[in-house]
């Protein structure tokens, strides 16, 4: 403890003179394994299957450039000025049109525009989670969500998935277990469509059941749906929000259907919750960037945005196919993966005894990067899994990357068979718990 | 208490079925009086002296439009893509050049780009403040800062100001008083230049003393400096950060020197703190909008940004003069105010017995809006004060607004002299504590 009025003591073990000043929540703030990789993985000789960057080359930059110029020239006094924390009214109306594609019937008043859906997630956690509150989330789950939950000192309890997404029986068991422990569950965080990182989709027949379970237990559902319109078979699933408007908070984003660098996302919330969200957002950023909202609004009204989504879908389907066929061609026996029907990711399980986190530095030496599975769990699981993102590289690069990855794995298996599993683990050091390979 | 597993009970007094689910911090999230006003104050017949919107009409929209178009056309694949939570490297270098004008010698690595300096403030509070921690702040202080502190359940203790800014002796007394109470002070939040809302500037000879006091007590200084380059006499004061790099976290913004709607601000922090800030920012928004960073970077490299600041200064000086001369001409006896030497605001004290919050609805009826003083205090003070923002309206409108305000005040004084102070208070209801007029 640092007593009030005393200067902070500088411990012999730390060079940070501010160490004793930090809030307790900073203990949960650790560098994401995935993002720590980006610098090295972005070297041109490395095929990065690690990041989730959209395939922007599919965008019509010339016509966008002209539209953006016109927004500044004709609406500059609004675009460059402060706006409301709630968001630009016209954009909120258009967002309702976008959500209508998923069966959602919403009022623009209940939409809050955010700086990417990451901010939506952060705001939802801010208004609902006290330290120690439990958030249920699929295991694995989106790494950015785990970061937000940690920032508010919420405890994540993972719920199992299978090929049809979240398993209702596992959800019941997780709820019962948390209730027995006397802790309080604030919400279920779920990515029902083309899951990040698992690539699976919640089966339509399970959706009502998941909603019923949560409703029966007084648990809010936070539905994160950045990839919902990116189904490769032309199928758009009905949002959870479409059938349960009072108990679902929906998070949407233009990052994957338009442009990530604009950072325009939104939250659709029950009316009473929406008021709290606007207040929280105001204290966080005052307002989302007005220019970016007007650009998205203009884009939706002047461009064939549905056609653009179709273009994206086709690009991602081609890349998914490249990833899957290369996996089938090259991966060593004992590896398994799913075939996603939309979105950006394939989730791969490697042969027993291999630690994907420990293997990563050797993979990068072999000029391929991926995201190891442990980053997607709050509880140390995932060391036998890895995520392949096929969204950004060309199909040719994806095939080359998967080939390199398979070679690294084969070398690793050979090492493992010769020297045993400890070889793989020694590299990653004390931060590599690997309960599911033990 | 809502027991785990039980659906939330709907109280008879509330229509919000989620009421029992909210985090404790939401109790401190209340609608800012100032922002609640914006809707009504933005009607064209009302002269709004309430908001702090910059005078964007001074911007060269045509050349900006062309630059923005070029950013999208030639750098679109970067501008519209995800970036790092740290911010675009080239912009961070240019930010160091901007800060050099205030005597700051900084490394670009220690700059973190944020979604406006409001996000910087929120991130700084996030990493330093546990619930119950004390933040010292001038009284009055920036309403958005009070909102962030409340969101993290920090307790604000105000420190008195005079015409030379924060009073060192008052700072010593506040620290001693908090220390006696056993609470822990995390930082002093201060706006040294052209204070919002008080309009005053911390005298140069006091700066070292304030820094010394904080350092001696192990208290970090958070220096918020959005207006520092907007001094009307051509004077730019040395930043607190310039002489104490290890104990000052500096918040900067392009909102007042360029364009607020881009939401580009920054934090300059001691190196160890900077790492925590980047992690916190990543969990909050993943990254600030890349497009906006490239626009600011382009603007700084191709436009005469120092000339633009000079243009802004001249516009604001003219408006300050309009405000001050009208106050002198019209305000009733017993009113006092300061003459700011930079920035956006005049802080007015009205005659005893007048409650500025209670008076506001009547002022709006008379087609003038202002910000009542209570919004700038965490402790209920300020009911005899009001803030006039002269940044946005034309000088002519400012004069008309001040004339209307003076008339409202005169009517109020007459009512007060006839019926006593309760008339003024009855209107604002139970939310109008007014200890300094009692």
**What count of helical segments of chain A does DSSP give?**
15
**CATH homologous superfamily of the largest domain in chain A - what is it?**
Type I PLP-dependent aspartate aminotransferase-like (Major domain)
CATH topology of the largest domain in chain A: Aspartate Aminotransferase, domain 2
Strand order within the widest beta sheet of chain A:
2-10-9-8-7-3-4
Mean pLDDT of chain A: 91
Tally of individual domains of chain A: 2
Architecture per CATH nomenclature, i.e. the level-2 architecture of the largest domain in chain A: 3-Layer(aba) Sandwich
* Main sheet: strands, sense, barrel of chain A: 7 strands, mixed
Given the C-alpha coordinates, what overall shape of chain A results? globular
End-to-end C-alpha gap of chain A: 38 Å
DSSP summary, beta strand count of chain A: 15
Q: Could you list the spans of chain A in which at least 5 consecutive residues all have pLDDT below 50?
A: 1-13, 422-438
Cα-atom Rg of chain A, whole angstroms?
22 Å
Strand content of chain A: 5-15%
In CATH's first tier, which class of the largest domain in chain A applies? Alpha Beta
Q: Which assembly state applies to the chains in this document?
A: homodimer
Work out the helicity level of chain A: 40-55%
What's the helix-strand series of chain A?
Answer: HEHHEHEHEEEHEHEHEHEHHHEEHEEEHH
Summarize the largest interface: chains and residue counts: A-B, 105 and 105 residues
Structural class of chain A: alpha/beta
